[in-house]
Recover the amino acids of this structure.
């Protein structure tokens, strides 16, 4: 989910995610870097860009399985999540939002 941080609501969403312990990143002009938890950031929205760290497709697929089925089964742990499954889970997650 992409958050529009040009709006007050978007800024609040990113700051709330930080408060909830989610990984937040800032852009230093060349790369996205992690915003350190418990650092009491100054939130310089004029000079910096902030975002919630995006999930990889595999992380999104695993989250979908856990959220919807309670756990990953042994087979998925053993072989890993296939690209087709990741694509399907990512599509389903987008549909659910």
């Amino acid at each position: 989910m992409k958050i529009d941080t040009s709006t007050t609501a978007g800024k609040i969403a990113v700051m709330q995610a930080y408060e909830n312990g989610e990984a937040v990143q800032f852009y230093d002009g060349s790369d996205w870097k992690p915003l350190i938890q418990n650092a009491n950031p100054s939130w310089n929205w004029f000079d910096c860009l902030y975002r919630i760290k995006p999930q990889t497709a595999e992380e999104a697929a695993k989250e979908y399985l856990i959220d919807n089925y309670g756990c990953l089964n042994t087979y998925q742990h053993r072989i890993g999540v296939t690209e087709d499954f990741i694509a399907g889970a990512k599509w389903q997650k987008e549909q659910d939002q």
